[in-house]
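User: quick one
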Amino acid sequence: MIKQRGQVVIDKILDTAERLFFTQGYHITGINQVIEEADIAKASLYKHFGSKTDLLVAYLQRLHECWFNKLEADVNKEVDPKAKLLILFDHHLERQVRNGYGGCRFIKANDEAGMSDERVLAEIQKAKQHLKDFIARLVVNSGHQKLLTDKELTGLIFMMLDGGIIAASIFKQADDLQSAKAIIQKLL
Amino acid sequence: MIKQRGQVVIDKILDTAERLFFTQGYHITGINQVIEEADIAKASLYKHFGSKTDLLVAYLQRLHECWFNKLEADVNKEVDPKAKLLILFDHHLERQVRNGYGGCRFIKANDEAGMSDERVLAEIQKAKQHLKDFIARLVVNSGHQKLLTDKELTGLIFMMLDGGIIAASIFKQADDLQSAKAIIQKLL
DNA sequence: TATTAAATAGACATAGTTGTCTATTTAATT
DNA sequence: AATTAAATAGACAACTATGTCTATTTAATA
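Assistant: Done. Structure below.
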């Protein structure tokens, strides 16, 4: 499967948008900066994406797919059903450290543009719901001690992940996320 | 204590900025919209606040004070030390419902402008640290069952609050925040 | 009431925004 | 090699952004 000419341009745009939307923010990033750093022409961008909002939606869709595949792959490496749940924390912790505590791209997008466009909100909801469903399956198969119900444990892990990522992005350190893992370990 | 002339203007500016920065977002809100809806002159704004960033910092400072005072007052109404911790969830849940699941103003500001100005980040860190210290004190005095250490329970509550608020602002409902309260209740 | 300070309206400068359009060059396909 | 499609540079329109400045009016104080 060789890469079409158009796909190269699309990838360059999305790579650049992903980097800039994340490190700078969506509104602060101008189309002119995207085309300059992606090294493509403005007309090319507007040929593939009808508007800046369309680009944001496409960015979120691709992010959802890439991010979730990596997460699933990481979890699948582990066989112990309880350890699978703990990997969720390792995965997110490692990501936060690597990207300089930039927080969650979906939450960022929601805070910047979730109110303004329903497609944006829908993509963010889809991604987060996907994660929650994934956690729920892992919880059911974990054989945990049932100190909490399956639903409670699922919600707990889901909220601790986001809460821990938020704490990391505010305090620029991963102590809370590390601590979250230890807490879940006790409750499994 | 009568209100000075200048203070009326400052209050009108901060009230409007608070409303717009929260409902629309910081970058999307222009100075021209602020002065128009606050019904004051542009020169007045720039007399009291040197720049838009200064206005954001001032907004966060005032928010920190007002929000925390209300939270503390709510908690102080309750005498039972364990129930005091649960009030934290009631308080935030009620706020989220009332403001249409708009999320946390500090997290929003961090996601929009935390990277761009160190004073902004500092104010956000101050507010969140203040809350964490407050929770820590309540935990120490709660007489909880010590299934988790004081530090762990503090971190858990802190992360569940932010995680629950995030979930509310994404899914536009308070189920997770409600569930968070039930979970903490079990662990107290 | 006269003085002083503050708030006002609104023009203005400068720069940036998204998005469109044209003319040209590049590359793939027949 | 000729044709077709895509990407290019860059000018341009229309609008918005922040921030400054002047001239005027309003209000508090002495």
